[in-house]
Amino acid sequence: MRIKNLIALFFVFFAITGANAQAKKYNIHTVAFYNFENLFDTINGANNDEEWLPNGAQNWTGKKYKQKLKNLARVLSEIGTNDQQKESPVIIGGCEIENRGVLEDLVKEPLLINKDYGIVHFDSPDKRGIDVALLYQKKHFKPTSFKNIPLLIYRSQEGKADKKDTEEVTDDKAEAGKDDRVYTRDQLLVTGFLDGEEINIIVNHWPSRSGGEKKSAPFREAAGRLNRQIMDSIFKINPNAKIITMGDLNDGTYNKSVKEGIGAKRKKEEVKPQGIYNPFEEMYYKGNASLFHRDAGDIFDQIMISEPFIRSDYSSFRYWKAGIYNKPYMITTTGQYKGYPLRHSLTEIGFSDHFPVYIYLIKEVK
DSSP assignment, residue 50? Predict the structure, then answer.
């Protein structure tokens, strides 16, 4: 009888604890990054935007621009939504943005206007005039400081070209100035409070692979080191700082710029205090991709987080899981590029040549 009573108590105990576990509720927020791919208006600006004018090579008309905004708004409103998460991202990092004006047009789109997104944007020295920026839902995130941090790189830093290394077809070509500097995007640092909890966000668009991967690698390695320097400066002020670094890195999760420059780790158990966890590295090795080139997929779009986000309790915002948003309507269905992201062409207004990436942050509701 005693054994039967113990077994009965055992099942009652686990039934109660199981019910308590199921009763727990969490706030869920989505944090996303998206390469908007050539989000240009139709106005001739001071940057090299001639290609993206009504009389330019892309025949970029007002009608096409409005359709591009509509397409992007649809994606941004839906990233990360599912049965568990109904809300659009509270924080969105973006790149390939011509100016603040195109972002103001974007957040006024019908699918986004009720989200009340704020904008953090600086013009960068990139010769094409493509910048990085941050959108945030004002009711959830309150910026307290923001600054653009220049990446100083020079042609003299270039590596030697590999004969086997073919030049990547890209719209993103860095240009050198008279002083030999390669003009590229700044790194955007935004600090603020997410529902009362301080977080730091770095938005990136690292130098392209123009000229070949090996030749251009030193530029991205310098970008990774700058990213780490920014993080270390934050950790000096607060060793337990919550940091999110996100962007189109033009490098994979396995490249030196990420693994050594930032010091990102593939597994949570490898991450030490003030270390960085990269959930997209494991996703890459499982065959996922955010973009494709020459029939090969890779994950250049990444979101990485500092160690406090992966601690075991949920009394404050913690990392839950990550994803690549690649719904069927965003994918090319026919032809040579079947399965690739549905991008813009002369005959079709698509979305982007990248799929957006996202992470969920969760916090237990007491």
Answer: G
Mean pLDDT for back-to-back runs of 10 residues, the chain (366 residues): 52 47 83 98 89 92 96 98 92 98 98 98 93 98 98 89 55 63 96 98 96 94 98 98 98 98 98 98 98 93 98 96 97 93 88 98 93
Q: Which two structure tokens, joined as six digits, stand for 174?
A: 């860095």
Residues 6+ apart with CB under 8 A from 38: 52, 58, 96, 130, 171, 344
CB 20: neighbour CB atoms within 10 A?
9
Nearest-5° Cα angle at 354, 302 to 317: 35
Give Cβ neighbours of residue 280 (< 8 Å, ≥ 6 apart).
253, 288, 299, 301, 302, 303, 304, 322, 357
252 vs 288: CA distance, rounded Å: 12
CA 16/CA 109 separation, integer angstroms: 48
Cβ-based neighbours of 74, under 8 Å, separated by 6 or more: 111
Contacting residues for 336 by C-beta, under 8 A, at least 6 apart = none
- Sequence-distant (≥ 6) Cβ neighbours of residue 22 within 8 angstroms: none
pTM above 0.85, yes or no: yes
Rounded CA-CA distance 335/312 in Å is 47
198 forms beta bridges with 193
3-class SS of residue 85: coil
Q: What is the pLDDT of residue 172?
A: 59
**H or E segment to which residue 182 belongs:** strand 181-183
